[in-house]
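Suppose a colleague, Dr. K., hands you the sequence of a protein chain of 202 amino acids and asks what its three-dimensional shape might be. Before reaching for any lab equipment, you can write down a predicted structure in token form. Begin with the sequence itself:
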Amino acid sequence: MTTKIIGITGGVGAGKSEVLKYIRDNYDCVIVTADDMGNEVKEPGGECYDRIVSLLGDDILTQDGHIDRKKMAAKMYSDTELVDKVNSIIHPAVIDRIRRLGNEARSKGEIPYFFIEAALLIECGFNDYVDEMWYIYADMSVRRMRLKNSRGYDDARIDGIMENQLSDAEYRAGSDVVIDNSGEFEDTAKQIDSYLGGENGR
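The predicted structure, expressed as tokens, is then:
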């Protein structure tokens, strides 16, 4: 069996998690997300644990020696230089881990699909790695409504996040497939099935 590696990207509020849940529930696949990998590399014994603790200090640790995400975030708050330093530690480790897992899946050939989800896939050069790049698209008004309803974000916060992400044109230029997730999810599911063919549905 040949394992197809598919990247899933898109702006905040586009509904990538919803798309991945449908894929996970209906197809034989493995899904890795940058967020999950980022958490794993910060665990004790992980690739980034010692360097982050050395950079931020022991006071970000819980009693059992794990990194407390809230304490870590508080320490980095408003310190862009520190944020950059932490990202320079975590991002390369996450990229290496994702590529290693993808390579293992390819060599074993035990699953039809291996999905990678990350907001920065295109920026991190994954176009040359994946077999297909999928852009999960949603209208700007829909994305704003979702972020306000599900996360309680205000317009200023939404604007700040979106300004730091690729534009719609940039996402489209860097992608092989566009999934429009602006409307009813039933329509989104039909688009997914049309690209995956449904032959590996459970």
